[in-house]
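Run: sequence + 3-isopropylmalic acid -> complex structure.
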Amino acid sequence: MAKYRIALMPGDGIGNDVMDAAQLVLDKLALDAEYVHADIGWEFWCQEGEPLPQRTLDTLKTCDCGLFAAITSKPKEEAEAELCPELQGQGLIYRSPIVRLRQTFDLYTNLRPCKAFKGNPLNYRDNIDMVVFRENTQGLYVGVEFHPLPDEVRAALKAHNDRMGVFDNVPGEDIAVSCRIFTRAGCRRIMRAAFEYAKTFGYPTVTVVEKPNVVRETSGMMVREARKIATDYPDIELWETNVDAMVMWMVKNPQDYGVMVASNMFGDIISDLAAQLVGGLGFAASGNIGDNLAVFEPTHGSAPKYAGQYKVNPTAMLLATKLMLDWLGETEMAQRLEAAIAAVIEEGKVRTYDMQGDASTLEMAQAIADRL
Ligand code: IPM
Ligand code: MG
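>> structure
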């Protein structure tokens, strides 16, 4: 029996292209693993009305972790239009399968390291080494939304908050509400994960990125919990910034920041910015990590227009593979993989189109595998 059982979820679009790159590298590393394919993505929405079939959840339950590539998501009306005719008009609702995976398996930490690799022509600046901890199961992405606003929800809100009266003359049909829900335990565990990471990898600061001056209750709770957790880590300084100012500072002085923590939506936003500072989404990987399961993915989307062309940069997918190896405890393999990626980028001979090169996805993956 293999040491690990890993679910491979290529998804759709360029997901397949980059998953092939990951497999090439994993084969070269000879990780002692059994790989099982699991269905996810747009194709399954169109055919079955379910982009994340139950069989995929069942498969994941039997695995140590999952490696996911990319999927297409579309807004409500377009999603309905692309359903196969038998399924249309049944009120099926498309919900992002990756967001659901995170929630179903309580993968509460979204770990997003963004490091400027030497010699990357796309770096905004060298010496950037940021790690975003994005709370991954709560906040604005929790999925508690109303439209039209039911009268009883309106009445309940009004009974507890005067501000609601401002909307008395607006019909329910014309109000949409998306709830931003934080729990104290949710704030504490993401904060703890960030401080532990800073301690393990020697980052001197942890920056909590919220907006407590305006979004008092939720952002306020995150910041208050951050202060309490920080007392357990006297050698690490807690910095507090507002998210709007933070994006400015990230552009102005990106090398000042190390570990950053934010709730779901703010983390989503600042992690794309962090990625762009080190070359764009082609270089950004994520770990969705819970206590019992983790799913690793490149941060980029499915780029349908490039699907099957083996053109896109596999680096993000290979960095996701590296995060997976770390999580499995295969630290030495993880370090070798990162060193091989760094060496190929620094040498600059094999580059995909985004780095002004002409190598294919698999040529770049092969160059990295050759270095291992
Ligand atoms: C990400 C993506 C996803 C998210 C989308 C595709 C649902 O933007 O992983 O950052 O918002 O979490
Ligand atoms: Mg995002």
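>> summary
The two ends are 25 Å apart (CA to CA). The chain has a mean pLDDT of 97.
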